[in-house]
Amino acid sequence: MLYEILYPLKDLFSPLNIFQYITFRAAGAAISALLISFLIGPKIIRILLSLQIGETINIIGPKSHHTKKGTPTMGGVIIILSIILPTILWTRLDNIYIQIMLLSTVWMGIIGFADDYLKIIKKMPKGLIARYKMAGLIILGLIICLILKKSGLTNITTTSLPFVANGQIDLGFFYYILIILVVSGTSNAVNLTDGLDGLATGLVAVATLVFGMIAYISGRVDFSDYLNIIYIPGGGELFIYCMALVGSCIGFLWYNAYPASIFMGDTGSLSLGAALGTLSILLKKEILLIIIGGVFVIETISVIIQVLYFKYTKRKFGEGRKFFKMAPLHHHYELSGWHENLVVVRFWIIGVLLALMSITTFKVQ
Length: 365
Description:
By secondary structure, the protein is mostly helical. It is built from 14 helices and two strands, in the order αααααββααααααααα. The protein has helices spanning 2-6, 22-50, 76-90, 96-121, 130-150, 174-193, 199-218, 221-226, 237-256, 265-282, 289-292, 294-317, 329-335, 340-364, and strands spanning 158-160, 168-170. The protein has a two-stranded antiparallel ribbon with strand order 1-2. A hairpin with a 7-residue loop joins strand 1 and strand 2. Helix 7 packs antiparallel against helix 9. It starts with a helix and ends with a helix.
């Protein structure tokens, strides 16, 4: 918005020329997101406390979690507002990639809010029925498919192959199926990982920072050509969105770090997961997402292993057994004696290592 308003006035006031630079607007978005988080965070926490909108704790989980009962949740409202407002303020709103990102963030934020509302306000333990969540994710994937198909953009159904020189593959119709799978899988993966104070928030910030770098590189002909990656005209605007998201996560971490004053709830985790998945689609890095978001992948796999092993042992021995002490994996380490903060920091370190590994794939190409 500021670009449309102020940049045309550059001939009258030359310093306004700075608004043409993506790096300047990205920095502005990150700082704005931080400030918004700091300004609205305490107010939203007070409102949630006054309305007694607090977290319920699973009695079969780690005993240390019982002290968290009543901690305000639905804090994803803070995250979403501090993403959306800076994005509107600092990006070019006529950019189709920005429009898709705003749609994904708000769409899944609404679904997550409905889930939290049913669980906490209406006291429905399961919240929004799983098939309705999946329906929401599939509809979002279909909308993204439709927008991209009608956009007139080139290489819509093409994706990148990491570790391969000039690696690209056109999936044709199957690419639209991939979009639905990526958006749904990533959203659910972040939701599963959001079980410890600051865990998902920090990991999303790290992953988004990598996507921000990719967006900046992909949006420049010279850099993308040098690194043998797909050039995405207009993709540089996604760098601004990414920095707003990173600033939002860091701002929310101020309240969400151990011991958390507020939890993001499904309002935050579903929208952040959808944002990561959509970024990977728009930047043609769906496969690389497996490395960038490696911790989310591992957490999801641990749940799948736990469920399959339980069903297998129940069928074979008549009694279901656990492969892990508890799934997702972060709870397994808690029950193994690790302090919650230790689990979070070590998972963050793994997330950073995977992020660095993903960046090195560019030179391998």
